[in-house]
Specification:
This protein has 304 residues and is mostly helical. It has 2 domains: 87 residues, DNA polymerase, domain 1 (Orthogonal Bundle); 179 residues, Intergrase catalytic core (hpI Integrase, Chain A, Orthogonal Bundle). The protein is 59% helix and 4% strand. It has a 3-stranded antiparallel beta sheet with strand order 1-2-3. It is globular, with a radius of gyration of 23 Å.
């Protein structure tokens, strides 16, 4: 009997039920830990107490040899450590062999953002003479104005839209709730969509329920559907950068900080539990300041 597989099943259930993690996050943990258990099984290790620190280190070395990207290796090690900590807390093992293995230091990866004029070009290229164009304008305005994750946009319900007050009630990672201001432009486009477009789309399917954004068949939009919509407008606006729905969130945060917004206010709007996650955008802000300095300082201009 492979006791490790049993404990992994318990761990995944723990993440789903007690930690209430998102489905995508749980799937990533499962993939990484299945690879880890397959390696241990190749060494004929099936009992949690038989795992030693040398086995974990050897597995990480194998990931290096694949080669796996440093961030992927760090993610794997993080999953392994959490899994062993769980087994320790539940009494499956007497000692956590991973507690003294440190996560590697990784350089901060700066997210790609759109310039303000690029964002305006994308929004202005949308044909708002059509119902789907008006839907798309409302959707992209919200992504940019509120810094929403794609999952938050797709999960948005009519009951969580407060048009009169200009707020959205958002349920983020781990079902954490926050309230986000819409801004006048996004609010007007959303109001127009809800008033003149959504009702027409919703008549085409009984699956619309109270989901805000629907596809042409009246069903809730999918991640791939939104990605394709964005790519259509990126191409039409002649923007060569790689742009995803998350790029709108990165741009939202960066443009706020460049405009002088308080870091903690941005943290609240993004729904980050730790301000260090939000601070990556200050690196982008510093790069912007360096560029301004280089462009406008008289001593810098002498070197052009």
């Amino acid at each position: 009997m492979n006791r490790l597989k049993e404990t992994l099943t318990d761990f995944i259930n723990h993440l789903r039920v007690e930690r209430n993690l998102a489905a995508n996050t749980i799937e990533s943990y499962q993939i990484d830990l299945n690879r880890y258990l397959a390696y241990l099984e190749s060494l004929e290790i099936q009992n949690p107490d038989a795992v030693e620190i040398s086995h974990v280190i050897a597995f990480i070395r194998e990931l290096h040899d694949v080669p796996l990207a440093p961030r992927s290796i760090s993610r794997n090690l993080s999953a392994i450590r959490m899994y062993h900590r769980f087994m320790m807390n539940e009494g499956y093992i007497q000692k956590d062999v991973t507690e003294n293995i440190d996560l590697p230091k990784l350089p901060a990866r700066l997210p790609k953002v759109l310039e303000i004029h690029e964002m305006e070009a994308i929004l202005n290229v949308i044909n708002t003479e059509t119902d789907l164009g008006r839907r798309d304008r409302a959707m992209l305005e919200l992504l940019y104005a509120c810094g929403l994750r794609i999952s938050e946009l797709l999960d948005l319900r009519l009951s969580n839209v407060y048009l009169n007050h200009g707020w959205l009630r958002i349920f983020g990672k781990g079902s954490k709730e926050r309230v986000v201001p819409m801004g006048a432009e996004a609010r007007e486009w959303l109001k127009h969509y809800l008033t003149y477009v959504r009702y027409t789309l919703a008549q085409k399917s009984i699956e619309s329920e109270d989901v805000v954004f629907l596809n042409a068949r009246g069903k809730p939009l999918s991640r791939m559907g939104v990605w394709k919509i964005i790519q259509q407008y990126i191409k039409a606006a002649k923007i060569t950068k790689k742009v995803s729905p998350h790029t709108f969130r990165h741009s939202f945060a960066t443009h706020l900080l460049e405009g002088g917004a308080d870091l903690r206010a941005v943290q609240e709007m993004l729904g980050h539990s730790d301000i260090s996650t939000t601070q990556i955008y200050t690196h982008l802000d510093r790069e912007y300041l360096k560029e301004v300095h280089k462009t406008f300082h008289p001593r810098e201009r002498r070197h052009d």
